[in-house]
Design a protein that fits this description.
It is built from one helix and eight strands; from the N terminus they run E-E-E-E-H-E-E-E-E. It has 139 residues and is mainly beta. Strands 1-2-3-4-8-7-6-5 form an eight-stranded antiparallel β-sheet, with no helix packed on it.
Length: 139
């Protein structure tokens, strides 16, 4: 079986860049990304200017974290399995001239899991937190 991609790993020839992610339209910040399948699970790998993986994310409900959390898990399920976690505003990291920076994202929250995966929640204006529309796991 193929090795699961890891943060800091250099992208190798088995993957071809096939998408670009724009983090902040007002900054025109474009991040190269690779949409890959690992063991039948769709992953998006974002890479730095040095061609190393700095983010792994999935919307695929087949993926399960070591804590038993998957895309679509409820906030209650997460806190029942990981009571030491907390909900916090989401930070998005990016590089400017080789320096790592971050920006808080409006209406987005994250729960950092003990395994290092983050459960991301995007809320539409007017929706209470328990009715969020987008769930994403990111490492």
């Amino acid at each position: 079986m193929e090795k699961f991609p890891e943060i800091g790993e250099t992208i190798d020839s088995r993957w071809e860049p096939n998408q670009v992610i724009q983090l902040f339209p007002e900054m025109s910040e474009l991040i190269p990304a690779y949409s890959v399948k690992y063991d039948g699970i769709r992953l998006v790998l974002q890479v730095s200017e040095k061609n190393t993986i700095f983010s792994i994310q999935t919307y695929d409900q087949k993926f399960v974290t070591p804590e038993g959390i998957r895309v679509g898990s409820t906030i209650k399920q997460i806190f029942d399995r990981c009571p030491e976690t907390c909900l916090q505003p989401r930070k998005v990291y990016f590089w400017v001239n080789g320096e790592k920076r971050f920006q808080l994202v409006k209406n987005e929250y994250e729960i950092l899991l003990p395994s290092g995966w983050k459960y991301l929640i995007s809320c539409h204006d007017g929706f209470p937190l328990n009715k969020c529309c987008t769930y994403e796991l990111m490492r």
